Sequence to fold (129 residues):
Amino acid sequence: MAEVINTIGRRKTAVARIYMTPGNGEIKVNGRDYKEYFPTGPLQYIVGQAFAVANAEGKWDVKANLDGGGITGQAQALRMAIARALCENNIEDRPALKKEGFLMRDPRMVERKKPGQPKARKRFQFSKR
Fold:
C-alpha cells in the first residue's frame, strides 16, 4: 500500500490535484473541509461517489488543490482524481469505477464565441431591409 498517492482530475476548465493518504476519511479542499467548500448536498455526494463505489469510505484522507472552472466542474474533477487514486492503490476497483464512468475525462467544453455574433452560435437578428 502506497503512503501518498498523487493524481490529477479534470472537467471543463477545472483541475483537481490530490494527495491521498491512508486515514479516517477527512477531505480537505483548498485548506477547508469539503462540506464547507461544496455547500450543497448533490456536490458533496459527487465528491464521495468514487469512495462509495470502491467501498473505501472512511479509509483515506484527501488533500485537494482545486483550480479553475465552476463549482460543479471542480466537484467532478475531484471525483475523477479520487477514482484514479483508488485505481492506483487497488487495481481490482478499476472495473467498477470504469463502469460508473469516473475514470473517463468528460471532454465537453464551452464553445468559443465567434466574431460578428453575439454568442457561439446565436446570430444577430436578420433584417431584409
